[in-house]
Design goal:
Blueprint lengths: L11 E3 L3 E6 L31 E6 L2 H6 L13 E2 L3 H4 L3 E7 L3 E5 L14 H10 L6 H15 L9 E5 L7 E7 L7 E9 L3 H13 L3 E2 L3 H4 L9
Parallel strand pairs: 4-10, 6-7
Antiparallel strand pairs: 1-6, 2-5, 3-8, 5-9, 7-8
């Protein structure tokens, strides 16, 4: 029998605001979920018996957290803060803003809001979630998402797990979110502005600005280096 990963089931509001989405246009427009996503807390594989697969739709609160949770996730700066970005990875992605139009809810697992579903003194469950919300091994997080889905379904009344929010591992001042499709409804969201492909001058400028916020520089920046890493760069 699946074990509970929450002390109580309670969904909290998803704030009606603008969010940022870094996504792969190969899987559809900014409102389309990725049916192949296997990122943190996806409902795709390695799930407990009885859990249901769903497509994933990742969003973030800021451009900084959106980039750090995706294309900047594995950067490793040198002593001077220089980083190398793989242009083949950048070529797959775009960024665009989205706006929530209708009331929505999520399972909130950032530290303060988590107390609605897990008490402060439940060290076992808090430690378990702390691990899965920071690990770089995503397969184990799929199990936790599946267990949360099953527990929501077993609640009275039953609930479909709409998504999960957590404190970004990479940009910890912000929250990251995964929404599941189903039950997320595309009509409850609107695309804002135009998408920006990351491997274009406009995309490069956004990457520079985000890296600069953390005192990093792009060593193989096409705008300054022609896209070639400098001698000795790792």
């Amino acid at each position: 029998m699946p074990h509970n990963v929450l002390e109580r089931v309670k969904l909290l509001p998803l704030i009606a605001r603008t969010y940022i989405r870094v996504f792969e246009p190969a899987h559809g427009d900014v409102l389309s979920a990725n049916p192949h996503a296997t990122g943190r807390l996806s409902l795709k594989q390695d799930m407990p018996r009885g859990a249901t697969h769903a497509s994933s739709w990742y969003i973030a609160e800021t451009l900084r957290s959106a980039f750090w949770e995706s294309v900047l996730r594995d950067v490793d700066p040198d002593d001077d803060g220089g980083v190398i970005l793989d242009p083949r990875v950048l070529a797959k992605y775009a960024v665009q803003s989205v706006q929530l139009l209708e009331p929505a809810s999520v399972l909130r697992l950032e530290p303060a809001a988590r107390r609605h579903v897990i008490g402060l003194n439940n060290h076992r469950l808090n430690s378990e979630w702390d691990h899965h919300l920071t690990t770089a091994i995503y397969e184990t997080t799929h199990v936790m998402a599946g267990l949360a889905q099953l527990q929501c379904r077993a609640a009275n009344p039953p609930l479909d797990l709409p998504g999960i929010s957590w404190r970004s591992r990479q940009a910890d001042a912000d929250l990251a979110y995964v929404l599941y499709v189903p039950p997320r409804v595309s009509a409850h969201w609107a695309a804002l502005d135009d998408l920006v492909l990351l491997n274009t001058p406009a995309g490069h400028q956004l990457l520079r600005s985000v890296l600069a916020q953390d005192q990093m520089t792009w060593l193989n920046d096409p705008g300054t280096s022609g896209g070639t890493p400098p001698p000795g760069a790792v």
